[in-house]
Amino acid sequence: MRKMVDALRENQYRITPQRLAILKVLAESKGHPSVESIYEQVQTRFPTTSLATIYKNVAVLRDLDQLLELGFSDDSNRYDGNKPYDHPHVVCTVCRKILDPDISALADMTQELTRETGFTITRHRLDFFGVCPECQARR
Amino acid sequence: MRKMVDALRENQYRITPQRLAILKVLAESKGHPSVESIYEQVQTRFPTTSLATIYKNVAVLRDLDQLLELGFSDDSNRYDGNKPYDHPHVVCTVCRKILDPDISALADMTQELTRETGFTITRHRLDFFGVCPECQARR
DNA sequence: TATTTGTTGATAATCATTTTCCATAAAAAA
DNA sequence: TTTTTTATGGAAAATGATTATCAACAAATA
Ligand SMILES: [Mn+2]
Ligand SMILES: [Mn+2]
Ligand SMILES: [Zn+2]
Ligand SMILES: [Zn+2]
C-alpha cells in the first residue's frame, strides 16, 4: 500500500481519492479481484466512479510493477497487489476465488528446466485448479 | 495419430481427408501449433481448406480428450496432440514456440497443495516463459 | 447406385472485455 | 489564487479470435 503510493509519487502520478480507494481495495483483498470487483468495492465509497478509471489505474500500477496481472483466456483478468511478482496460484473452479499457496521447491524447478531445455527462464505462470474447502462443504 | 483416428471412429465421426491432414499436422508437430498454423500446413495439401474446418475439428478432438488446448489471454490457442493431458510447458517469448520439458517432482507439488490449502486439485496449467537456445544464438 | 446424414467452405455474426474519446473536474505548481 | 497539467466519468468504439450459418459436397450404409 505504502509502496504503491510511493511508486506513484516517484513517477509523477497524482494522488487522487479514486486512486487511494483502488489501492486500498487491492491491498486488503485476498482473493485476487477482477477489475469489475474492484469497481464494485470502490463504488461503495465513490458512487460516481467509472469503470474506465479502474482500468486505467490498474494499467498504471501494472506498468509500475506494483501489481501482478493474471490473464485468463476464458475470463477477465485478476490482480494481486500484495505479491506483485510471479508466484503459483490455486483457483477454485466453483467460486472463482484465487489463493496464494506456499510452495517449496520452485526455484529448483526453474533450474531443472534451464539445465534440461537450455531456455533462459524469466517468468512463469503456475495455476492449479480445483475446488476450495468452502465449496466442497456446500455439497 | 492412430489413437485419434480410433477415437473419431468410436464416436461415429467420419474420416475425411481434411481430418486426416489435421491429425497428421498435430501428430507430427513439435511446437504446439495454433489453429492458424495448422490451417497453413493443411492448405499446402488441400488449398481450399477453410479455417472454420480447422476450428471445428480441433474442437471435436479437444472434446474427445485427444487434444490439450492451451488458451492464452493475449494470443490464440495452442494445441498438443501428443500429450493430451495436463503437463508443464516452456514458452519462448521471442519465436512463440512451445516445448514439453521433463519435470520430476510434480505429483509432489499437487499433494503439497492439497495438504496445505484443502483444495481438491483436478487440473493444472504450468507455463514457464523465457528465450529458447535458438533465439539466444540469434543475438 | 441411391439414400442418408455428417462435413466442408465461405462468410457473417458474436462476444465480452478492454480502449479510446473528450468535455469536465481536480491536483499540483507558480 | 491563478495557471498548468493530469485524471475522471460517461459513453461509444474497438478488438479479433472464435462460433454460427447454410448451401453444396461427400462419406457411409445398404
Ligand atoms: Mn497471488
Ligand atoms: Mn505439450
Ligand atoms: Zn470455492
Ligand atoms: Zn525462440
Annotation keywords:
6 helices; binds manganese (II) ion; DNA-binding; two-stranded antiparallel sheet; 3-stranded mixed sheet; binds zinc ion; Arc Repressor Mutant, subunit A; Dna Ligase, domain 1; alpha+beta; homodimer; 139 residues; 5 strands
In words, what does this structure look like?
2 copies of one chain form a homodimer. The model of chain A has no long low-confidence stretch (mean pLDDT 95). In chain A, helix 2 (17-28) packs across helix 3 and helix 3 (35-45) crosses helix 4. By secondary structure, chain A is α+β, with helices and mostly antiparallel strands. Chain A folds into 2 domains: 1-81, Arc Repressor Mutant, subunit A (Orthogonal Bundle); 86-139, 2-Layer Sandwich (Dna Ligase, domain 1), CATH 3.30.1490.190. Helix content of chain A is 44%, strand content 21%. Chain A has helices at 2-10, 17-28, 35-45, 51-63, 107-117, 133-137, and strands at 68-72, 75-80, 89-92, 98-99, 120-131. The longest helix of chain A has 13 residues, at 51-63. In chain A, strands 4-3-5 form a 3-stranded mixed beta sheet. In chain A, strands 1-2 form a two-stranded antiparallel ribbon. Chains A and B meet through helix 5 and strand 5 of A and helix 5 and strand 5 of B. Strand 5 of chain A pairs antiparallel with strand 5 of chain B. Bound molecules: manganese (II) ion (2 copies) and zinc ion (2 copies). One manganese (II) ion (MN) binds next to loops of chain B. One zinc ion binds at residues 92, 94-95, 97, 132, 134-135 of chain A. The structure holds a DNA duplex (30 and 30 nucleotides).
